[in-house]
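for the writeup, i need someone to sanity check this before i put it in the appendix. the sequnce is what the collaborator sent (i think, or maybe the updated version? ugh). structure was predicted straight from it, no edits. if anything looks off just tell me and ill rerun, i have time this weekend
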Amino acid sequence: MSKKHIAILTVILAILIDQISKIYVKTHFQLGEEVVVFADWFKIHFTENNGMAWGFEFGGKAGKLFLTLFRVVAVSGIVYWLWQTVKRQAHTAVVVAISLILAGAVGNIIDSVFYGVIFDTSYHNVATLFSDNPYGELFYGKVVDMLYFPIYEGESFTFFNAIFNGADSWITIGVALLFIFNKQAFPKEEKEAKQVS
């Protein structure tokens, strides 16, 4: 399989897994509902946020729109980066890494752009897909999170209390692969550093 086909397949599969899992949770869980998957440290816990890491927000509606548009521009840059990487026949792990980062960014953009106009609210309600009474507007959807790994839960402290989604996972895995295969990912920078030294 060519690097181009690997990239396309990785992006498509990663986006599909992310969106299918989000749509399933959105249409089967009420906001805040959770189920234990394994041994109390792996749970599906349905929550939503406006698109920033750890649920941070800024600037109200204007900030939300800026964040979404910024992500769209960033995706354009990632597409170009992936295209250049495929073109120079980089290591397969690097192609997969950038493809995963792209898929993760696109996955959360889909939530932000479209979920507000295709779902109704999840507050005290299991949302309906393609609802006649959507909860928001175009570009103002909320990102669905559900993966929760509270490795330790005490009375006043929880170790690893982040709740994330497939798209976040793809970005994390992609960045980790780039770190591991950094020599293959950034060969020019390495050569320039050797010349300077």
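The mean pLDDT is 89. The longest helix spans residues 60-87.
thx in advance!!
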